[in-house]
Design brief:
Elements: H1 11-19, H2 24-27, H3 32-39, H4 43-56, H5 63-71, H6 77-80, H7 85-96, H8 102-117, H9 128-138, H10 153-156
Helix pairs in contact: 3-4, 4-5, 7-8
Length: 159
């Protein structure tokens, strides 16, 4: 069974698909140039949509993770080749300005493993023991943000 890809299309893009009688699920069967034409999308938007699909193709990684990779300037798995999970996770925390939930580090470990091996059988939680062992031995870098992610404005809900 193919994983459902979430694109977060604009109302205009959704209408373009509806007019052409193409469902969101069907969209993942189209090549990037076909999607660009179907949605009348700019090259930048097409690149973003392709990245959302490529990153979400990794088992157990969703649109939030894909959007964060894009926010950090990544648009393909090829760009991530040779990067380490520690490097990517550290950059993520610096980008956010807060330390992240441990499962996020597990997700970066999955990402790096997937880029290297294309193993569809692994999920982020398969890397929890590895992360715990590493952190027990080495801890976190001195420049790790002091604020936890749940104290960021988007999570505080006015508290």
């Amino acid at each position: 069974m193919k994983k459902t890809i979430h694109y977060e299309l604009t109302p205009t893009e959704k209408q373009a698909l509806k007019t052409k009688k193409i469902s969101l699920k069907m969209l993942q069967d189209y090549a990037p140039d076909e999607i660009a034409e179907l949605l009348n999308a700019s090259p930048e938007r097409t690149r973003e949509l392709q990245a959302l699909a490529e990153f979400q193709s990794i088992p157990s990684l969703g649109i939030g993770f894909a959007k964060e990779l894009i926010a950090q300037g990544y648009y393909s798995l090829k760009q991530l080749k040779g990067k380490t999970a520690l490097e990517l996770f550290g950059a993520y925390e610096q980008h956010c300005g807060a330390w992240a939930d441990p499962c996020v580090e597990d997700s970066y470990r999955l990402l790096v493993d997937y880029v290297a091996h294309r193993d569809d059988s692994k999920r982020w939680w398969n890397f929890t023991a590895e992360r715990k062992a590493y952190r027990a031995q080495f801890g976190f870098p001195a420049n790790r943000p002091a604020k936890p992610w749940y104290k960021l404005e988007q999570y505080s809900h006015g508290s």
